[in-house]
Amino acid sequence: MNAPDLTTPHHETTQQLVDARTPALPIELIRADAMLPVLETIEDTRHRPLQDLRISVTDRCNFRCSYCMPKEVFSRDHPFLRHDQLLSFEEINRIARVFLKLGVTKLRITGGEPLLRKHLENLIEQLASLCTLSGQAPELTLTTNASLLAQKAKILKAAGLDRVTISLDAIDDAIFQRLNNMSVPVATVLKGIDAALAADLNPVKINMVVRKGINDGQIIPMVEHFRHSGIVLRFIEYMDVGTTNGWRMDEVLPSSEVIRRIHALYPVHPLEPHTAAETAQRWAYDDDAGEIGVISSVTQAFCHSCSRARLSMEGRLFLCLFAGAGYDLRALLRQNLDDAALQASIAHLWQQRDDHYSELRGQGMQPLRRVEMSYIGG
Ligand code: SF4
C-alpha cells in the first residue's frame, strides 16, 4: 500500500472525509414478523454470535497520535462533526437496548476520546440501567487516553461504569509527548490511572500499540513500571486501520517477539483465556508480579471468534474494524419504527455478515476503503 500524501491541505469536515472513504449504506427495513424464530443469540454466516457493541461518542480527540489521528490530516482548524450531527444519548441508548435483545452482553464506549463528550456520565447512567437477555446489567467499559480521567473517574463509577482500558504507548515523558503530538505529559495520564484505581474501575487495563523503531524500546520500561501494580498491561500489534497513517508491515513487531523480550528479563508463562472470544493472549509473570497480554491482530488473526459490532457517533453500524462502509442506523431510527422492526433489521445484517479482514490480510488482500480508527474507535 502506498503511503498517503500528507502534504496536501485537508479542509474536509470529518463527515466529508469519512463519506469519501466510507459511504453510508442504506438498511432494508425488515418487518419484525419476517424475522427468523428468535433465538437466545444470533449468529453470522461464520457462526459467530453478536456479543459486543462498541459505541463511539465523538470524532474528536485531544491527542494526535500518528497511527490514529495524524496531525497533518487532522489539523488545528479541522472541522469536526457538529453536535447536532452526533447521535443523541437517547438514540444511543435505544440502539444499545435493541442490541442487548440480540444477545449483546458488553458495551464499550470509545471515540475519538470519549471523555471529550460533555456529560458522558449521563449516557453511562442510562446504559447501566439496561438489561441483557439473562436479566443482568451489561458489562460497561470505556477506552480512553486518560488525560481527563483524573476529574472524571469517580463520577463515571458512580454512574455505573465497570472498568476502563487506557491507551498509553510510552512511559518516558519525552517519548510520550512526541507520540501524542500535543505535548501532553505522561504524568497527566498516570494521574488518570491512579484515579481509575482509586475509583475501583477494575481491572484497569493499559493498551500499548507497539511500532518497531518508534516505541518498541518502551516495552521493558512499561513492564517495569506496571509490574506489581495490579494493572494488566497489553501490547497490541500495530494495525493498518484506516488509510491516513501510512501503515507498513515492517513497523509491526510480532507479539512473539514482545513476549521473547519480556521473558528474557522477567520470565512469564501463558494463562488460559477467560472466554473463547477474548482477543488478548494472557501471560503471567513467574514471580507473581501480575498479568500481561498480547493482542496479535496482524500475525495471528482472531476473526474466527470476532463477536463485535461498532456504532459510529453519527449512527452508522460497522460489522468489522476494517469495513469500508457503515450501515445507516440513524436513518432507520428516524423512520419512527418500533424496536421490534429495528431489532429485525439489525439481526438481518448480522446474519449476513461474513467479515474476516485480518485473515484476508494474511493472504495479501487489501480493501480499497477502510474506516478511520479515530472515527470508530479501536
Ligand atoms: S478484522 Fe474484522 S472480523 Fe477480523 S477480528 Fe478484526 S474486526 Fe473482527
Automatic annotation (TrEMBL):
Pfam families: Mob_synth_C, Radical_SAM. Its cofactor is [4Fe-4S] cluster. GTP binds at R54, R108, T143, K205, R308, A309, R310. [4Fe-4S] cluster 1 binds at C61, C65, C68. Its EC number is 4.1.99.22. The keyword 4Fe-4S applies. Residues 45-270 form the Radical SAM core domain. GO terms for biological process: Mo-molybdopterin cofactor biosynthetic process. Keywords: 4Fe-4S, GTP-binding, Iron, Iron-sulfur, Lyase, Metal-binding, Molybdenum cofactor biosynthesis, Nucleotide-binding, S-adenosyl-L-methionine. Pathway: Cofactor biosynthesis; molybdopterin biosynthesis. Binds 2 [4Fe-4S] clusters. Binds 1 [4Fe-4S] cluster coordinated with 3 cysteines and an exchangeable S-adenosyl-L-methionine and 1 [4Fe-4S] cluster coordinated with 3 cysteines and the GTP-derived substrate. PROSITE patterns: MOAA_NIFB_PQQE, RADICAL_SAM. SUPFAM superfamilies: Radical SAM enzymes. It catalyses: GTP + AH2 + S-adenosyl-L-methionine = (8S)-3',8-cyclo-7,8-dihydroguanosine 5'-triphosphate + 5'-deoxyadenosine + L-methionine + A + H(+). GO terms for molecular function: 4 iron, 4 sulfur cluster binding; cyclic pyranopterin monophosphate synthase activity; GTP 3',8'-cyclase activity; GTP binding; metal ion binding; S-adenosyl-L-methionine binding. InterPro entries: Aldolase_TIM, Elp3/MiaA/NifB-like_rSAM, MoaA, MoaA-like, MoaA_NifB_PqqE_Fe-S-bd_CS, MoaA_twitch, MoCo_biosynth_MoaA/MoaC, rSAM. [4Fe-4S] cluster 2 binds at C303, C306, C320. Monomer and homodimer. PANTHER family: MOLYBDENUM COFACTOR BIOSYNTHESIS PROTEIN 1 (PTHR22960:SF0), MOLYBDOPTERIN COFACTOR SYNTHESIS PROTEIN A (PTHR22960). Catalyzes the cyclization of GTP to (8S)-3',8-cyclo-7,8-dihydroguanosine 5'-triphosphate. This is GTP 3',8-cyclase. It comes from Saezia sanguinis. The lineage of its organism: Bacteria, Pseudomonadati, Pseudomonadota, Betaproteobacteria, Burkholderiales.
